[in-house]
Amino acid sequence: MEKIVILTGAGISAESGLGTFRDEGGLWAQHRIEDVATPEGFVRDPQLVHDFYNARRAQAAEAKPNPAHEALARLQREAKGEVVIVTQNVDGLHEAAGATRVLHMHGALDGALCAACDHRWGAPLTMAPDDLCPACQKATTRPDIVWFGEMPYYMDGIWQHLEEADVFAAIGTSRQVYPAAAFGQHAGRAGAHTVELNLEPSANTRDFAEARHGPASAVVPLWVEDVLSL
């Protein structure tokens, strides 16, 4: 029974209309990362941060899964072994396509978190600085998003999955930020066949035994077809 572990990044959702950090004219281009994606930025201006994530949440709510998301959901359904999806994305497009067991290492737009007591609950479409935590009643609610300088979620489990993988695929991610930048090398050292599926070679493409380059909606379904035909 083969185990396949997949890491997805912003590139897989770009064709669904959700921008990446590097897109000119998108939400990220209008803000400095340190203002909207750090704990310090939230302390300085919680209204700005909530406005930013309210806009991202509204954008994500309108987005639809593309053929790459659908192909990975198909792989989970039809593969003979286990298929684990780890995503850096905070949208819900993998789940909307039918995927299960998705580990959102950077949190999710549909989650809210209390900065005081760590209580979590489903986020409304619009959040504000004076929203009260349902558990402790403090006005300390924030998006359940992992910001720069914070520890990604599920890391102990992710490292374990990488060590158990027979195949590791990285899809639509530049892999310039650790710890995800080390996943390919870690899985390869543990014996996995590693493959990069990306629009263009990533900064760490040398860590992969195989590479397929092109739009995710084209290369991912072809790769899934090849895997399922083995």
UniProtKB/TrEMBL annotation:
<dbReference type="GO" id="GO:0005737">
    <property type="term" value="C:cytoplasm"/>
</dbReference>
<feature type="domain" description="Deacetylase sirtuin-type">
    <location>
        <begin position="1"/>
        <end position="230"/>
    </location>
</feature>
<dbReference type="GO" id="GO:0036054">
    <property type="term" value="F:protein-malonyllysine demalonylase activity"/>
</dbReference>
<keyword id="KW-0520">NAD</keyword>
<feature type="binding site">
    <location>
        <position position="136"/>
    </location>
    <ligand>
        <name>Zn(2+)</name>
    </ligand>
</feature>
<dbReference type="InterPro" id="IPR027546">
    <property type="entry name" value="Sirtuin_class_III"/>
</dbReference>
<feature type="binding site">
    <location>
        <position position="114"/>
    </location>
    <ligand>
        <name>Zn(2+)</name>
    </ligand>
</feature>
<keyword id="KW-0808">Transferase</keyword>
<dbReference type="InterPro" id="IPR050134">
    <property type="entry name" value="NAD-dep_sirtuin_deacylases"/>
</dbReference>
<feature type="binding site">
    <location>
        <position position="216"/>
    </location>
    <ligand>
        <name>NAD(+)</name>
    </ligand>
</feature>
<dbReference type="InterPro" id="IPR029035">
    <property type="entry name" value="DHS-like_NAD/FAD-binding_dom"/>
</dbReference>
<dbReference type="GO" id="GO:0008270">
    <property type="term" value="F:zinc ion binding"/>
</dbReference>
<feature type="binding site">
    <location>
        <begin position="88"/>
        <end position="91"/>
    </location>
    <ligand>
        <name>NAD(+)</name>
    </ligand>
</feature>
<feature type="binding site">
    <location>
        <position position="53"/>
    </location>
    <ligand>
        <name>substrate</name>
    </ligand>
</feature>
<protein>
    <recommendedName>
        <fullName>NAD-dependent protein deacylase</fullName>
        <ecNumber>2.3.1.286</ecNumber>
    </recommendedName>
</protein>
<keyword id="KW-0479">Metal-binding</keyword>
<keyword id="KW-0963">Cytoplasm</keyword>
<dbReference type="InterPro" id="IPR026591">
    <property type="entry name" value="Sirtuin_cat_small_dom_sf"/>
</dbReference>
<feature type="binding site">
    <location>
        <begin position="172"/>
        <end position="174"/>
    </location>
    <ligand>
        <name>NAD(+)</name>
    </ligand>
</feature>
<dbReference type="GO" id="GO:0036055">
    <property type="term" value="F:protein-succinyllysine desuccinylase activity"/>
</dbReference>
<feature type="active site" description="Proton acceptor">
    <location>
        <position position="106"/>
    </location>
</feature>
<dbReference type="GO" id="GO:0070403">
    <property type="term" value="F:NAD+ binding"/>
</dbReference>
<feature type="binding site">
    <location>
        <begin position="198"/>
        <end position="200"/>
    </location>
    <ligand>
        <name>NAD(+)</name>
    </ligand>
</feature>
<feature type="binding site">
    <location>
        <begin position="9"/>
        <end position="28"/>
    </location>
    <ligand>
        <name>NAD(+)</name>
    </ligand>
</feature>
<dbReference type="GO" id="GO:0017136">
    <property type="term" value="F:histone deacetylase activity, NAD-dependent"/>
</dbReference>
<comment type="similarity">
    <text>Belongs to the sirtuin family. Class III subfamily.</text>
</comment>
<feature type="binding site">
    <location>
        <position position="133"/>
    </location>
    <ligand>
        <name>Zn(2+)</name>
    </ligand>
</feature>
<feature type="binding site">
    <location>
        <position position="117"/>
    </location>
    <ligand>
        <name>Zn(2+)</name>
    </ligand>
</feature>
<feature type="binding site">
    <location>
        <position position="56"/>
    </location>
    <ligand>
        <name>substrate</name>
    </ligand>
</feature>
<comment type="function">
    <text>NAD-dependent lysine deacetylase and desuccinylase that specifically removes acetyl and succinyl groups on target proteins. Modulates the activities of several proteins which are inactive in their acylated form.</text>
</comment>
<dbReference type="InterPro" id="IPR003000">
    <property type="entry name" value="Sirtuin"/>
</dbReference>
<dbReference type="InterPro" id="IPR026590">
    <property type="entry name" value="Ssirtuin_cat_dom"/>
</dbReference>
<dbReference type="Pfam" id="PF02146">
    <property type="entry name" value="SIR2"/>
</dbReference>
<keyword id="KW-0862">Zinc</keyword>
